[in-house]
Amino acid sequence: MPFPTLNTYLAHLSDPDRPASSVWLDSAGRAQGKYFNCTITSAFQPIRALGSSRIVAYEGLARSASAGDAGLSLWKLLDHAASDDESIELDRLCRMLHAINFFRQDAAGQSDLYLNVHDRLLSAVSSNHGHAFKRILDALDLPVGRIVLQLPATTPQQGWLLNYVADNYRRNGFRLALNAASVAQAQAMVAEQRPHAIKLDARYLSGGVSLEPLLDAARAAGVRLIFKRVESAPALGSPEVVADLPLYAQGFFLDQPQAALVSDAALAA
């Protein structure tokens, strides 16, 4: 068992005689939690290397609990949370559930876990972003180094806030992924923030905008480029665009989010 402390905690959650708490396991072994009257669990969408389809990471997504993988996305709940304190509580609950549900399945340890940070959290947390989540991971002996916190897109006026939050997360041992609205913004982020990864919309793979300057800058800085919202085969771009480029992609055309990580047998197929 690669994570003995986590397995001890899961055994505790399975104990029918334990006191009621905000986190429990369903009949399939998935960790679930409650926010007001909504039961929340996790779904995971792979991030794949273009060309080889190798899975390098999964993004954790909050879903309403369902018998299969048909739960509804609950990320919009944070938009309507009644207060900053409640939005912080929901965000931390989702991150905890995703970490438990990911690492209880990830015996091989070959991939990272990307977790969203809602834009409301950037200003709602007064200081030391990431410290509370790091304490949870440390208590369960889970590797902070395999978590990539995905920050929302920001305006130029929020640049100071992004730098402040990013610095706090890094001080707590997390790697960062940033969302860019354009190729030009992505290139500026490589130079200024140097995150672990930058996410761009898949439409930039179509060849209408040159990726070479961004790719050269990202390669030199060791920044991973991930193209999101791949909804169709054309969104993956022409072979000339993606040939020999270390690019990554994520989207419903490649994978539907599901509770279970992709099995070794499915990867081989």
From TrEMBL:
InterPro entries: EAL_dom, EAL_sf. Pfam families: EAL. SUPFAM superfamilies: EAL domain-like (SSF141868). Residues 18-269 form the EAL domain. This is EAL domain-containing protein. Gene3D superfamilies: EAL domain. It comes from the Bacteria.
